[in-house]
Specification:
- This protein is mainly beta.
- The chain folds into two domains: about 70 residues, Roll (Ubiquitin-like (UB roll)); about 325 residues, membrane protein fhac: a member of the omp85/tpsb transporter family (Porin), CATH 2.40.160.50.
- It is built from three helices and 20 strands.
- Strands 3-4-5-6-7-8-9-10-11-12-13-16-17-18-19-20 form a 16-stranded antiparallel beta sheet. It has a two-stranded antiparallel sheet with strand order 1-2.
- The longest helix is centred in the N-terminal third of the chain and has 35 residues.
- The N and C termini lie far apart (about 70 Å).
- The relative contact order is 0.09.
- It comes from Lates calcarifer (Barramundi).
């Protein structure tokens, strides 16, 4: 046997072993991430060592996962930011309640416009943790001053979530007892007419493709979100078909700047002779959608109360850049961005006896739009704050505007 052959064999063996060890480390890391995503372990550590014992292989490896479980019952207290709304959230959770990563959670939320509490049960499919079922019981009370409306929902829901290719899919059934009332004595007759009790039973489907590197202030990637809801076929006195979508594209440019484009749209079709409810319609306007307009203060209205619309679209174009002169670069200053924006959209009701061309023509009429610039602050991956100087254009009769400085806080922005 030649020396050259021995050298080549030794190199091949060492190369094969290195590849084997790297593969074991990679697979162990993936398994660790899956265990952490279950939400039942406080800490997961991986120990890789050579095999020992009577059954040990000559070149085998032992992989040991050392875990520290969460307590049987955990509590939490935190604050949340919604669409221009803040809330305090108290939670109580029983992780791994049945021994297979099931969770039982109680949550109470008190906010500036909404108060809610609910009980939910979550169960993942063994071996396929991305597939899961959740059952929820809840009560939500919200105040909507732009409509002089108060709404209380008491409901139950069941959800099935699962991945398909690069998408995340969710199927949901929801049954809600809704109670609508007037928020003020000055509420319009149109709002008073909607007051009372109703039952909604609906089936819905949502599909999400998200390749963004961040959901709050992305620098690259895209988002496609499609949602459909069908009410009335499983009971209740609300009957409609509701479709809406969201598209977002982000592209990194020169000098650390980012160009972002967004498009939203939706359509609400009543089924039968009964008109749609004010609680199911779309609303538009405000610092998180069409900037330069007051919160949800566009479109159909009666005596100053905004009634929502059955069709809408909204588009946004943004250019995000670093702060001038880059103060705090590499630290706190990286949380801030300057942005220039252009927003446009429309919200209206359609005559469904007319054809699609008439519908598109109406959506293209009386377009509201605005432009301006401002400062964006990213609060981790939780929310973002905006302080903008807005110039509203295309203002229609009855619209409320916010000409000048406008503040916005939330997690979903146009």
């Amino acid at each position: 046997m030649s020396v050259q052959f021995l050298i080549v064999s030794s190199i091949y063996w060492h190369h094969h072993m290195v590849q084997f060890v790297v593969q074991v480390m990679r697979k162990s890391h993936e398994a660790r991430q899956k265990l952490l995503r279950l939400g039942i372990f406080r800490k997961v550590e991986v120990v890789i060592d050579t095999s020992r014992g009577e059954d040990a292989l000559p070149n085998g490896l032992d992989v040991t996962f050392e875990v520290t479980e969460l307590r049987r019952m955990t509590g939490s207290y935190n604050t949340m930011v919604g669409n221009n709304e803040g809330s305090m959230v108290l939670g109580l959770k029983l992780p791994n309640v049945l021994g297979r990563a099931e969770k039982l959670t109680f949550q109470f939320s008190y906010g500036t416009k909404e108060t809610s509490y609910g009980l939910s049960f979550f169960k993942p499919q063994p071996g396929h943790f991305e597939r899961n079922i959740s059952l929820n019981v809840y009560k939500v009370t919200g105040q909507f001053p732009w409509s002089s409306l108060r709404e209380t929902d008491r409901g139950v829901s069941a959800e099935l979530s699962f991945p398909v290719w690069k998408t995340n899919q969710t199927l949901k059934w929801e049954g809600v007892w809704r109670e609508l009332g007037c928020l003020a004595r000055t509420a319009s007759f149109a709002v008073r007419e909607e007051s009372g009790h109703s039952l909604k039973s609906s089936l819905s489907h949502a599909m999400v493709i998200d390749t963004r590197n961040s959901s709050i202030l992305p620098r690259k990637g895209g988002l496609l979100k499609i949602h459909q809801e069908l009410a009335g076929y499983t009971g209740g006195d609300a009957s409609f078909l509701k479709e809406d979508f969201e598209i977002q594209l982000n592209k990194t440019l020169f000098w650390d700047s980012v160009l972002s484009a967004s498009l939203w749209g939706g359509l609400l079709l009543p089924i039968g002779d009964k008109p749609t409810s004010i609680a199911d319609r779309f609303y538009l306007g405000g610092p998180t959608s069409i900037r330069g307009f007051s919160m949800y203060s566009m479109g159909p209205q009666s005596e100053g109360d905004y009634l929502g619309g059955e069709a809408y679209w909204a588009g946004g174009l943004h250019l995000y850049t670093p702060l001038p002169f880059r103060p705090g670069r590499g630290g706190f200053g990286d949380l801030f961005r300057t942005h220039f924006f252009l927003n446009a959209g429309n919200l209206c009701n359609l005559n469904y006896g007319e054809g699609p061309q008439a519908h598109l023509k109406k959506l293209a009429e009386c377009i509201r739009w605005s432009y301006g610039l401002g400062i964006v602050l990213r609060l981790g991956n939780i929310a973002r704050l905006e302080l903008n100087y807005c110039i509203p254009m295309g203002v229609q009769s009855g619209d409320r505007i916010c000409d000048g400085v406008q503040f916005g806080a939330g997690i979903r922005f146009l």
